[in-house]
Amino acid sequence: MNGKFALEARNVSKHFGGVIAASEVNLQVSPGELRCIIGPNGAGKSTLFALLCGIQRAESGDIFIHEHNVTQMQPFKRIRLGVGLTFQTTRAFQDLSVRRNLAIPNPNLAVYKEGHQRGAKRLQIALEGFGLDPSDDTRAGELPHHKLQWLAISMVLAGYPDTVLIDEPTAGMSRDETDRTTEVLKQLNAHGLTIVVVEHDMHFVKSVAEKVTVLHQGRIFMEGNVAEVTANEDVKKIYLGHAH
Amino acid sequence: MSSKILSLIGGDADVGTSRIFWVGFVIVVILFALYPTQASEFRASNVAYYLLNIPLGLGMALLWGYCGVLSFGHVAYFGIAGYAYGIIAGNMAGNSFGPIAGVLGGLLASALVAGIFAYFVFYARVREWIIPILTLVLTLLLETFLGQTAGYQWRVGSVLLGGYNGMTGIPSFQIGSFVFMGYSFYYFCMVIVLVCYVSLRMLVNSNFGQVVFAIQQDPLRTETFGYDIRARQWLVFVLSAILASVSGLLYVQWGNYITPSQVGLLSAALPVIWASVGGRTSLLAVVIATIVLNWVTFTLSAQGNQYAMVIIGSALVITMLFFPRGIVIMAAEWIGRFTNRPTKSTGG
Amino acid sequence: MKKENTPDQTDTNNVVEDALDENADLTFTRRTFLKGSVAVSAGIAAPAYLAGISKSFAAASGPVKIGHIEDLSGNLAVYGVQKDHAAQLAVKEINKGKTLKGGPAGSGGVGSLSNYAVNPPVMGNGDKDLKFVNDGGDLSGSGMAFVEDEDVLIDSGESGILGREVELLHPDGQSSNNIWQQLTRKLIQEDKVDCLVAGFTSAEREAIRPIVDQFKQLYIYTNQYEGGVADSNTFCTGAICEQQVIPVVDYMIQRFGPRVYTIAADYNFGQLTAAWTRAFAPVVGGEIIGEEFVPLSVSDFTTSIAKIQAAKPDWVFTLLVGSNQSNYYPQAAATGLEYPMASTVNMAQGYEHRRFKAPSLDRMYNCVNYIEEIPTNRNRAFVKRWYEMFPDDPYIGQMAQNTYFSIHMYAKAVRIAGTTDQEEVKRAFESGLHLEAPEGTVFMEPSTHHCSHYIRLATADADHNVSFVREWPSIQPWWLQRLGVNLVRHKEYKQYIPDEDPFFKG
Amino acid sequence: MELDPLALSLIYQFGTNAAFLFLAALGLIVILGMMNIINLAHGELMMMGAYVATIAHNQAGLPFPLAVVVSFFSVALFGTVLELLIVRRFYGRELGALVVTWGLSLVLGQGTFLVFGPFMPAIKIPGGSYSYGSFSFSEYWLVLIGISIALVIGLYWLYRYTKYGLQARATMQNAEMAKALGVPTSRVYTLTFSLGAGLAGLSGALLAPTSTIAPFMGQQFVAPAFITVVVGGAANVISGAVGSSVLLSAIKTPIGMAFGAFLGTVALLVAALIIIRIMPNGISATIQKLMDRRRAASIS
Question: Is D98 among the domain residues?
Fold first, then answer.
């Protein structure tokens, strides 16, 4: 688990019909990093996540998780290498209780196994930070939106991953809730969790990330620290819809 | 350990978790056990017929309700097991191990066909709505094949497949020299149904069952927790095929007879109807619906009522319109408001 | 009343006169029921040995229950409803004090009643020179069994059977074998019917026969079928292959030529009937030049029609069953297929000649034991009675007539037995019963439990008018005899198939 | 050039088999492809079409072509009622729709039996026959092949050039988006369902002269229709129906001719299973993918 990169994409491309979703994408995420990926709608952010996890197969290029070439691997096998993923639309199991939901990724939640202390610790941070009770019998479908979002993030952590891909965690949240999410993610990162976040909210991006990747039309448009990226005129244009 | 088992049985993955429910459950089981003492052999055998269909219905609930995969052709496994039993036990007629060998052979044959078929279906990642139609095609194929097996060229050992007229003279089940017939067959069915129900209830409350339920809710999400969903769907499919074969085996022992129409279009729809009327997301609901619907069908036809199909068809439409999650489930929830205290955690 | 039991005391003339009064009230009926016990033999001198069978009445009371299962809903309801109506008509007539002429003729068959000894069709004696079919028997001569009595529905002298009212229990089989099994158990075990009349498809019969045998239930199967059932508890009153296939094949080969193409339903009936054709066509100089079996689900016959055209037969033997397969006829007509056709199932069952527009069934030849158009007075009277009771019915089919006379035959057997005790009634059935059915004379052949029938070769012309080209007043069910089946002596409970007869291997 | 009669017969058989499959599947694939509703009462809708045509032709004395048109509109009207009362509650619940339409099919089949009795007098097949060599061909089937082709063109035109077609395609691709853009999606669904029902009725009426008019006649179309639809897939209604009926007929015809109807039927079913294994989303999806790839290639 001590590879050079936690996650790496080399020259990855993908088309949908005539639409280019990813073109020659190169991405390296080091262990322990907290990386934000930004870009306008349709820039290919979610596709990039899907390609990294294997939900979509890349047409060309290679994907590595901890130096394992996983390009031909099915999603569930990639997950087992220590990756977790949340989706853009909140996806918890609405008909199951909170307790059951948290048990799905890790049936033996109560047992703190040897070698899993770090993962268990992170889960504890998340649950406490988000105020979720792991023995709660409330149906997930009855939770308010932000709690459902937090539940989805906690579920990912319940699988004890060392790298997580989080797609728009703060969408639809109030400022307070966003801040609380930011806080928890930062804490988790401080406990060694590699985090890749797709996010629109620049306030959020500024407050969590050091390094930002900008995607545009399936290509990596720019990569740099927050200050550089926010200062870049072209990036602003992309967001306003001028640049091509 | 035993408390773990109890918590699995009593878990909330099926309706009925309260104390009152379990008291009622035990009373109903006792009533069923006492029934033959009050009823003629004919009535006992009729109820045995309702009971023997239950595993098929349970298999449907497991596959459709809990796993989200609808099979319109589960009667194929019912039929394969029945025919395999007939061939094996028929050829070993006189040998008291014949029926046991027949049961094992029937289960194995069904599981094998289901395994191969499910591999085709799930690993090809066909779209969800195609699966019911593919299963239907399989069962029609089986019916067409079996229908033309009249004559001696279709003799397996000493047993004739019998074409459309069916296979006759299938031996009853026996252990040692004890043959299950009449009342004893009733108890045989009852015990098997009880075992199927309780063990399935444990299964759906277990981690395995929960993951299967999660697959039904959101396959992709479940996969991104590191589960091989296709392997699980495959396993559930085979398991439900085995349940269908249990019904098939009991059926051939009940009537000593099976025909290709058992795997035809009309039979194929029955388990789907039981599951949807009762409520496919509850094992118990399907059990109740199986018994009640079989009873209604029989009663209507015994009266020579030509409206039987119209009534059953309308019942289906009305159920789907007004009780979309199943009559039994929705009734249970309504009753549950009065009996269930806000559920305490049952463990786990 | 029980002391009056001996049949000898009955004044048959009185009975007939009394029963003529149709308005006879119930008390009257009860008074005369005992007398009616042998009204059956009015006009027929019952052979003396029958006296041994006619025992005193069992002390049974309440109605005589006849269980009748047919499909009143679902795919087979088309035929089931007809048969159900036939049963209702027969029961109504019996309860009104009517019966069909007939009675025990002895084991020799109907011929033994006539002034002339009629040779039944000869059956094979081991070699292959089998000549069963003649030009239609000798219809001349008075007093013969074959004389077409016009008025065959006579008074029985009692209301019901043995004075007990007949109750018809007729549940709906729903075209499902499972329901059939359940209903059979119910009728036998719970309702304790005295006689079970049931079964359209062979599959339905085979589904319930194990149950019938388990309870030694008297069971009458009324359908035309592939033959071969040798079951001590079962009496088959429909026509079978030797009665239908051989006459029609013989006629067609003589008339149109030896090259036969068989297109048959791909299941037991079609396959076995085709096996009969295959075995016997060579005997009468024919040759099977093509054979195709069509699954029951098939309804598009384009390819089959082209195959027939490629084979260029002299005539086509169509053994197609069910509503999907009757599509063959309009499709073949539209394609311009003009070969003569023969069948044993169509027209008389599903009245295709009424439903399909002419000339789809032009030059269709069909050997039947009954068809609504039979031009005899007794049949016209039967048809009239039927439509008085069921004015909306579309047609009276072959099986419906079988059901009708079978129930009358049961009534007759009970009167001979003098009891509804089922073993006694079975023995009465084995006494060589004959009956004047709407089709003509039928005779219950004791050793095989099958009926001899009056067989007619009916044909439809270009306008679908039915005419009759030949008649065989009595064809015996001889195949099981040939196999050595004798149910009077040896009890059996199985169905033979042609593979068991070495003749069919050749 | 002198054409071998057998070859001509095979071409004719291929055409009729394909037309039969196409007509049997047409209404089903419209409803399934556009609305994701598996309509198990499809056979009964075809049966209704046949009944309406029979009554209109035999009893009301309408000429047959007119009777077919009447069937189309009557069954389409019935479809509208069905959609408004029942089907619309099942959008997005595909399996629920499947069960409810199964219930409907039981009611319609047995209900027709109770009202109209076991059989209806058949319609005479219009037209005569041609013969060539030892084979002969039904004019009516040739007309049906022609009508099938005309229906393909008509549907293509409908979806390509009419307002309804545009709205329907938009709704099919993304219902939410279409709604946001002001497409009356609910009306589009109603129209699509009644179009599908009407086409089922039309097919039933067209096939009526070739078959027995009976309450349960719909059952004969169920298996072929579903197999055609599954093999065709739902990515594109027209290419799916055409591709699949042509492909299946190409498999069934020679095998049926050489080995008889039983193996012809078995070949059809087995082919369906294998095609689904190779092309999980049906022929139409494969065609779509090929076209996309070509387009992508032309872009880059």
Answer: yes
Residue B225 to residue A155, Cβ atoms within 8 A: yes
D295 touches chain A (CB under 8 A): yes
Listed residue (B267, B287, B250, B305) closest to B65, CA to CA: B287
Q: Rg of chain D over CA atoms, in angstroms?
A: 20
**Looking at the DSSP assignment, which residues form a beta bridge with residue A139?**
A97
Show which subunits contact B, needing at least 3 CB pairs below 8 angstroms. Answer: A, C, D
Q: Which DSSP helix (H) or strand (E) runs through C436?
A: strand C433-437
User: What CATH architecture is C9-106+153-239+374-493?
Assistant: 3-Layer(aba) Sandwich (3.40)
Classify B258 as helix, strand or coil.
strand
Classify residue B319: in a domain, yes or no. no
**Structural domain containing residue B82:** 44-262
Q: Does C73 touch chain D (CB under 8 A)?
A: yes
Overall domain count for chain B: 1
Q: How far is residue C284 from each of residues C131, C168, C246, C257, C288, measured CA to CA in Å?
A: 8, 45, 9, 11, 12
Domain ranges of chain C: 9-106+153-239+374-493, 242-343
Interface test with B, best of D276, D278, D283, D286 (most B CBs within 10 A): D276
pLDDT tens over chain B, length 348 residues: 567 777 777 777 777 777 888 898 999 999 999 999 988 888 898 899 999 999 999 999 999 989 989 898 899 999 999 999 999 999 998 888 899 999 999 999 999 999 999 988 888 777 777 788 888 888 888 988 898 887 777 888 888 888 888 888 888 898 888 888 889 999 999 999 999 999 999 999 888 888 898 888 888 888 888 888 899 999 999 999 999 999 999 999 998 889 898 888 778 888 988 998 888 889 999 999 999 989 988 888 888 777 877 888 898 899 888 888 888 888 888 877 776 544 433 333
Per the CB < 8 A criterion, the answer to whether B182 and B41 are in contact is: yes
pTM for this prediction: 0.83
Q: What is the distance in angstroms between the CA of the first residue and the CA of the last residue of chain B?
A: 12
- B295 belongs to a structural domain: no
Torsions phi, psi of C118, nearest 5? Answer: -95, 130
How far apart CA C132 and CA A165 sit, in angstroms, is 88
CATH architecture classification, A7-242? 3-Layer(aba) Sandwich (3.40)
ipTM: 0.79
Domain count, chain D: 1
- Burial call C99-133: b when 16+ CB within 10 Å, e when fewer: bbbbbbbbeebbbbbbeeebebbeebeeeeebebb
| Residues from chain D contacting residue B321 (CB–CB below 8 Å) | 86, 89, 100
- Class level of CATH domain C242-343: alpha beta
